[in-house]
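Sat 14:20. Reprocessing the chain from the morning session after the first attempt stalled halfway. Input below, unchanged.
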Amino acid sequence: MIKKIVILAILLLMFKLSIEDIRTRQVSKFGMYSVIFFAIVCKIVDLYNGKIFPEMELILILPGIILLLIGCVNKEVCGMGDGMALLAMGMMLSVAEYLRGIITLGVITFIFSGMILLLKRDAGKCKIPYIPFIFIGMLAGSIYSFVRK
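Finished this time. Tokens:
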């Protein structure tokens, strides 16, 4: 029950950050640190309940770590907020939920990007906010968590 409340808090924060990212192409550091904090709380709850598998935990947070490293190397062209959001997603979801979320995130990003390429002339110069797609992926993965018993 506690984990579901924490996941709901993360989703609400991610919704707020998604709107912020769409409007300004930036997210507040406080908001992202709050999401990371709640994701760590999810991991602590999982640890308390005995639902942590160390080898899988590394695999789940690896995409977020890689995106953070890419952000450091190329001076945040791919933002640090995106890496933190993927890191939080890996910490808050189980393997099955994470895979559902990542697949949903990828498909929706692919469709949206394809539409922009087809409809806009200067699509190559267009910057797309990524946090809303990560939010949708988190939501898709979390729905399974809320529905199962």
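The longest helix spans residues 95-119.
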